[in-house]
Write a structure and sequence with these properties.
alpha+beta; single chain; binds flavin-adenine dinucleotide; 149 residues; two-stranded antiparallel sheet; rod-shaped; 40% helix; FAD/NAD(P)-binding domain; 2 domains
Length: 149
């Protein structure tokens, strides 16, 4: 789990801009402008001054991956198989690629032409993609949240 602290800033970009940054997931204090300013000072070298804040909050980004993409006749795909940060817009795309990989294998199996080996290949081919995507997205959140200004 990752936790982000942030504030919506007034006076720019159709009235709002968001300042967000990653904090320790164990840090559950209520956000204050002073705290966010100290985080901004620490991470931007004092270049960002929060003057008008509309909303202060923290939120968590969860990530999880099922250990197997096949449990008998059940083949998890999409968010039922893997969830991670939406940063980078990979969730739906990854899920569609799961479905693309799986659909023709299931279609053959339904017609009695799909082997066990072919059905097992769904896990072998798609499961490794999930941790790679999760790690890339988590790294992206850590790198870019303060750059949203
Ligand atoms: C803020 C945000 C921004 C995002 N931006 C992007 C992006 O830019 N690009 C991208 O690729 N992805 C993005 N994603 C991720 C993307 O939305 C998801 O990965 C995708 O929608 C998952 O699709 P899915 O079909 O696997 O699951 P879902 O969309 O969750 O669909 C599951 C469906 O099953 C239904 N359901 C649940 N339980 C049952 C039940 N027991 N019986 C019957 N039906 C049930 C639910 O109601 C739902 O309709 C974003 C996600 C978020 C939160």
């Amino acid at each position: 789990m990752r936790r982000l602290a942030g504030t919506a800033l007034s006076g720019s970009f159709n009235g709002e801009r968001f300042l967000m940054g990653e904090i320790a997931s164990s840090d559950d204090r209520e956000p204050t402008r002073e705290w966010l300013q100290s985080l901004a000072d620490e991470r931007t070298g004092g270049h960002v001054r929060i003057t008008g804040s509309l909303w202060l909050t923290t939120f968590d980004i969860h990530h999880a991956i099922v250990p197997r993409y096949r449990l008998g006749r059940v083949f998890p795909a999409g968010d039922s198989a893997h969830i991670h940060s939406p940063a980078g817009g990979q969730g739906m795309n990854t899920g569609m690629q799961d479905a693309y990989n799986l659909a023709w294998k299931l279609a053959l199996a339904v017609r009695g032409r799909g082997t066990e080996e072919l059905l097992e290949s769904y896990h072998a081919e798609r499961h490794p993609v999930a941790p790679a995507t999760r790690d890339q997205r988590s790294a992206q959140v850590a790198r870019t949240t303060w750059a949203e200004l």
